[in-house]
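quick one
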Amino acid sequence: MNARIVVIGTVALFITGAAPHESRVPLPGVQANDNRTAAGALRGDTLELHLVVAMATWRPEADSGPSIDVAAFSEAGKPPMIPAPLMRVRTGTVIIATVRNALSDSTITVHGLVSHPAAKDNSLLLRPGDSATVRFSAGEPGTYLYSATIGKHDYTKFNLNEREQLGGAFVVDPPGGSPPDRVMVINIWSEPIDSSAGRNALTINGRSWPHDERITATMGDTVRWRVVNASNRGHPMHLHGFYYQVTARDSMLQDSTFPPEKRSLVVTESMRPFSTMAMNYIPDRPGNWLFHCHIGFHVVPEAARLAPLPPDSHDRMSDDPRLHMAGLVIGITVRPSPNWRAAARVQPRRMRLLIQEGRRRGRASRALGFVLQRGATPPASDSIEIPGSLLVLTRGQPTDIMVVNRLHETAAIHWHGIELESWSDGVAGWSGMDAAHVAPSIQPGDSFVAHLTLPRAGTFIYHTHMNDLEQLTSGLYGAIVVLEPGRRFDPATDHVFVVGWDGINLALPPHLLINGDSLPAPMQLRAGVAHRMRLVNIGATGRLPFSLLRDSIPVMWRALAKDGADLPEEQATMRRAARQPVDVGETYDFEWRPEPGNYLLTAAIPGRKPLFVRQIVVR
Ligand SMILES: [Cu+2]
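structure w/ copper (II) ion:
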């Protein structure tokens, strides 16, 4: 690969973190903020808060791991914290906040200390040594954030050199308080080493995987989280094994709590930079699960650690989940309820799926593929399919898929969006019932039987969960279509569009493959009938704005499902097929009844060359 992209550079220099300074007083150490304790002193309906921004030493990984010196918020007299101290009050509270800039050499700009909702941010500019006090009412209930930038630069601008760790959550609770919840704040620190490698700290509540907190819950509990993206990048946040409901999406200044009929059920929610969401889910199966960002670069050891991975490292292929993942990952352990028993699997359908390597094609340095065995004879060992064979399954029919690894390296498959048992979920060394009974990776020449239960019909994904960046961009991904019992997959009216990456070259825009091809031949469709358009994005990163156009004008189509879950009637509306965002790890289904004519299915960012185009001729 591609390991090249992250491991080149002067490795040894960075292992212990920042270059040594001349002798001086050590900086205070940053405390990881678990966001369980609200900052400030509440007297009656007034909160008094004293915040200081000063330099501190942060260890986002192990306590003994690499460190970086960063500017961090603290409450006066307390240790500095990342994320910034939690501001959390009930609606109606008046906040008197004093902010002091204790940096010796930099002006800071503080954002988000406003009454909500706010049309604009009354940012505070503080020169070195300056303090200012603001007094405002907390405003409407919701999940917001506040942050500070060093200097006057536009904090919303995408910037790979992300130095600030000055974001924190700002929660306003309703008058009666909120049901128990947790607040998770995402921060990113990064520093390029050269054009293709960097040092990165991607953290949730101040720590990166595996050094962050494990969440435990019991089957049937309602788990409520407020997720705050205090970074200047988007993150498609994916939950393994369960759907979650998004009850609100917010920003630094605005709140939008959804009425029940507008709430969406997702396995992946695309969070924009500096946005927030309130989510909940009820785990109904025990075991170990994950909530993580689906951007490859944000969860792999070669791109989400402070010390670049040495070229001879085995971590990407390790069976140890503490090594083969890094960055924006949270582990969730669901304890079984007292009377829980694993359901018996009655007459499962059996399938055999082979993981193979074939002759190089396209731009990726290797070609890997999932190939379904059709009939009694296994496929030729060097035959591949990109994307992997479409798996057409039936709702309610237990299905055992024997995955045979014919590669010379370890493999693991995640069944993305499928509500299955933990053991089969595909995270090596983690999926399973408890620490003593976890699923291994699939060794070369070995196999693993995944038990799929298929409670709903819809569009899902399967993909590698091992050495993700390399294996995924070499072809280890595919789509799953689950049909209602008695239905047959009809390729004349049912169309799956799977978008993946063809290798990684960070110097160029991603080379996208749609159903394995970068220049697909025109598609012929029948006019006057309903076509189901299933859109799947399983690239390494990148939110794709899909449009379906006739003479540059978007057609109308009906939204049917998101991530495999049918939309409730109120949301299954006719929409313009214009720049429908599909983030990594999302699937969307639409129904389209075309008239005769020539159409284009495309993903294009205005003003730029389209990422892909597929011609559709309707007769
Ligand atoms: Cu991310």
